[in-house]
Amino acid sequence: MMVFWKFGLAFLAVPKTGTHAYQAALADQAAIVFRHPPGLKHMGIRMFNNRFRKLIPDGPAPIETLAVIREPLDWLGSWYRYRLLPQFSGQPESTRDVSFTKFIEGYLAEEQPGYAKIGRQSQMVTAPDLGYKVDYLFKYESQEALQDFLTDRLRIDLDVLEKINVSPRAHLELPTELRSHLREMRQSDFDLYEEAM
After folding, report:
1. CA torsion, ordered 38, 41, 46, 52, to nearest 10 deg
2. Contact, 43 vs 10, CB < 8 A?
3. Helix-strand-coil percent breakdown of the chain, rounded to 5?
């Protein structure tokens, strides 16, 4: 998570949406950067508004929020591939011996196995019970629009971003019935993605 206090903008880092590359490119411009621990680096809108916003003094402009979200199935595929990395070997989070189908079934289960505990993008960028929603929500696939927004808002020239934290390739096919069940169970995530810029 990065706060550009002078420009009234907080960039919330939804996991698996390429925000690591933006942090590498923009951290020097930010007034505040959370790199660790993951709970702060990947702070959602609920925590930002309830705990962090009150610590930031008023600046030249009120702090608005920005985040990136990914098409839900693509996002889940990215998590699955990420957890194939050797660093997870032998850990409950590893997907090394888990098919993508089993991963999605675990994700939709009432009691999620360790490898499928990843939260939801919608919970990162909205808190409907409190009326919170990120001000600017961009699709992961709309990198040009996001870069144009940041260039204009932060008054910088944003160079081509280096790809960081790229996960290995994997077979990501799903049975049609499971794909439909995922959409039914996570409809709000799909709807939110469609509403994003």
Report:
1. 120
2. no
3. 50, 10, 40
Q: Taking a C-beta distance cutoff of 8 angstroms, is the pair 13, 23 a contact?
A: yes
Inter-CA distances, 146 with 2, 41, 112, 193, Å: 15, 20, 33, 15
pLDDT (tens digit, 9 = 90+) per residue, 176-197?
A: 999 999 999 999 999 999 999 8
Q: How far is C-alpha 38 from the geometric centre of its chain's CA atoms?
A: 12
Distance CA 125, CA 136 (A): 10
Query: Which residue bears the tokens 């019935």?
Result: 177
- Total residue length of the chain: 197
Q: How far apart are CA 148 and CA 99, in angstroms?
A: 38
pTM equals 0.94
**Sign of the dihedral through C-alpha 135, 138, 143, 144:** negative
pLDDT, position 25? 92
Give the distance, in angstroms, between the CA of residue 116 and the centroid of all CA atoms in the same chain.
Answer: 16
Alpha-carbon distance of 61 to 38, in angstroms, equals 28
